[in-house]
TrEMBL record:
Residue stretches making up the 3-dehydroquinate synthase C-terminal domain: 185-300
Keywords recorded for this protein, A-Z: Amino-acid biosynthesis, Aromatic amino acid biosynthesis, Lyase, NAD
Record's keyword annotation contains Cytoplasm: no
Xref: SUPFAM superfamilies: Dehydroquinate synthase-like (SSF56796)
Name recorded for this polypeptide: Iron-containing alcohol dehydrogenase
Annotated Pfam families: DHQ_synthase, DHQS_C
InterPro entries registered for this protein in UniProt: Dehydroquinate_synthase (IPR050071), DHQS/DOIS_N (IPR030960), DHQS_C (IPR056179)
Length: 334
């Protein structure tokens, strides 16, 4: 079992990574909490014991349930049960669950403690860490949310053994991003060490920039296109698969803008290929729709904005010409 620390201006919290981490939940429930609202999904087989009175609140599957209506239903359920500000919400599941549970905790009574028990690879390496919570609008992903740091995060690698292969590969797409954020020898590490290394990398970004006012935005590498593909909808893509395409796209866009050469593009393709992620955009992609959605990305303050590689490493690059983006999308057509 590895214990890491995420340090923020508001305080620090532990992240436990290892087999059986979910069984340590009772140790990490905030002192004084009398009730735990367990937010999860019907498809998640993992039970947890908070060591105090608890009730299960089940939310729907898929991105269509990651919305304000779900948050309202949760908060009303908390109120009917009598959950107080002194109690705790426990999110058990993947990134969608921890995003929704965290946001509900952030807004219910203007802030209730939350602990995450992450059960997917994507959640363990990224979504459950760092306190970014939120839900989608029809206009874009994660456009409504709050920064609300958890009291603790449990990353139980045992839960990854039951993931369907495609869901596991989706997590690898999110993991691949960290290779370009400074995590060395990612594919040579054991699963526990790889998860812990990604957590440590994200923790460093969060400690440096908790509210994404600067450097933390680099954690969105590959996500601008990924979120646009997910928002446009109708494409058979998981989040990590979309991120893999986003990484390929970002490397090619950086090359088109003269920031990197062919070698960097090949490095991106080699890693994404090794994780068996898609190599081409889905058929029938509407460029104009993607451009419209990407312009609404939460990083965008001055025109189309992307995290791109370059001579000084990854940087947020605003004002990217739409023509360059469209031409780069064409490079990834099947």
């Amino acid at each position: 079992m590895q214990e890491l620390t995420v340090a923020t201006p508001g305080g620090s919290y532990p992240v436990l990574v290892g087999a059986g981490a979910r069984h340590r939940l009772t140790e990490l429930i905030p002192v004084g909490a009398r009730r735990a609202a367990i937010v999860t999904q019907a498809s998640i087989p993992w039970e947890v014991d908070a060591g105090i009175e608890q009730r299960r609140f089940t939310i729907g599957q898929g991105e269509e349930s990651k919305d304000l209506e779900t948050v309202e239903e949760l908060c009303r359920g908390f109120a009917r049960w009598g959950l107080t500000r002194a109690d705790v919400v426990v999110g058990v599941g993947g990134g969608m669950v921890t995003d929704v549970a965290g946001f509900a905790a952030a807004v219910y009574h203007r802030g209730v403690a939350v602990v995450h028990v992450s059960t997917t690879l994507l959640g363990q390496v990224d979504a459950a860490i760092g306190g970014k919570t939120g839900v989608n609008l029809p206009e874009g992903k994660n456009l409504v949310g709050a920064f609300w740091q958890p009291a603790a995060v449990l990353c139980d690698v045992e839960t990854l053994e039951t993931l369907p292969p495609r869901e596991y590969r989706s997590g690898l797409g999110e993991m691949a991003k960290y290779a370009f954020l400074g995590v060395d020898r990612l594919r040579d590490r054991s699963l526990e060490d790889a998860v812990a290394a990604c957590v440590a990398c994200k923790a460093a970004f969060v400690a440096d920039d908790e509210r994404e006012q600067g450097r933390r935005a680099l954690l969105n590498y590959g996500h601008t296109l990924a979120h646009a593909l997910e928002t446009a909808g109708g494409y058979d893509l998981r989040h990590g698969e979309a991120v893999g395409l986003g990484l390929r796209f970002a490397a090619r866009l950086a090359r088109r803008l003269g920031r990197v050469g062919d070698g960097e593009v090949a490095d991106h393709d080699t890693l994404v290929d090794a994780y068996e992620l898609p190599a081409a955009l889905p058929p029938g992609v509407d460029d104009q729709e993607l451009l419209t959605v990407m312009a609404r990305d939460k990083k965008a303050t001055t025109g189309l904005t992307f995290v791109l590689d370059g001579p000084r490493g990854l940087e947020v690059v605003p004002g990217v010409p739409a023509e360059a983006v469209a031409a780069t999308l064409a490079e990834l057509r099947p």
